[in-house]
């Protein structure tokens, strides 16, 4: 059984401008602190402080994926399939989107989207058909079974996400969301309303 994680503030004694001996002045270090200390020792000419953010985000992403994946699997889905069903469900009735729209709403290529749609259609979660309002346009639509599955999976997914962020106070969650939105905005174009 894994030891409980100490979630106390380990950085309160760290001066942000002091890189060389910060490891000596904290109560408990994590892997990233150790890596940075080693690089500071070996390459004092380089500012390795970005590793504190990037390294922790990278490790956190791995932990979050490991926590999120079992929810998808309990509903017979992979992460990509969950994303497709969720994009269809978010579309509202009649729960359909063109394949290109789905690719844009899930940030995958149209080729990868075709494979996901094939798997979901084979499982009975979606169908390919003519659009309800325009018979000339082809769309992917949720089946009743697909809607039942994504509703149950999304309900469990949101409870899981709430659990995963529960250790952070509400004000810190809001601040983190703002910081991440701003940072992500440097890499992605804003959506048109």
Automatic annotation (TrEMBL):
Superkingdom assignment: Bacteria
Pfam families according to UniProt: MarR_2 (PF12802)
GO molecular function term, any single one: DNA-binding transcription factor activity
Record-linked InterPro entries: HTH_MarR-typ, Tscrpt_reg_MarR-type_CS, WH-like_DNA-bd_sf, WH_DNA-bd_sf
Residue span, HTH marR-type domain: 50-185
Keywords of the record: DNA-binding, Transcription, Transcription regulation
UniProt-recorded name of the protein: MarR family transcriptional regulator
């Amino acid at each position: 059984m894994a030891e409980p994680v100490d979630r106390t503030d380990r950085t309160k004694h760290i001066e942000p401008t002091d890189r060389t001996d910060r490891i000596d002045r904290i109560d408990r270090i994590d892997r990233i602190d150790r890596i940075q200390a080693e690089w500071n020792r070996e390459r004092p000419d380089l500012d390795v402080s970005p590793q504190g953010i990037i390294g922790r985000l990278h490790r956190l992403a791995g932990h979050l994926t490991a926590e999120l994946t079992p929810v998808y699997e309990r509903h017979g889905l992979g992460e990509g399939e969950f994303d497709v069903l969720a994009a269809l469900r978010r579309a509202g009735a009649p729960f359909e989107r063109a394949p290109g729209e789905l690719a844009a709403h899930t940030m995958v290529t149209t080729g990868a989207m075709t494979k996901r749609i094939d798997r979901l259609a084979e499982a009975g979660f979606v169908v390919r058909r003519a659009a309800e309002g325009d018979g000339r346009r082809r769309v992917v639509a949720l089946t009743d079974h697909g809607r039942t599955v994504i509703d149950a999976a999304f309900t469990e997914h949101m409870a899981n996400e709430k659990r995963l962020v529960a250790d952070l106070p509400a004000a810190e969650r809001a601040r983190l969301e703002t910081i991440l939105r701003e940072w992500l905005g440097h890499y992605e174009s804003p959506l048109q309303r």
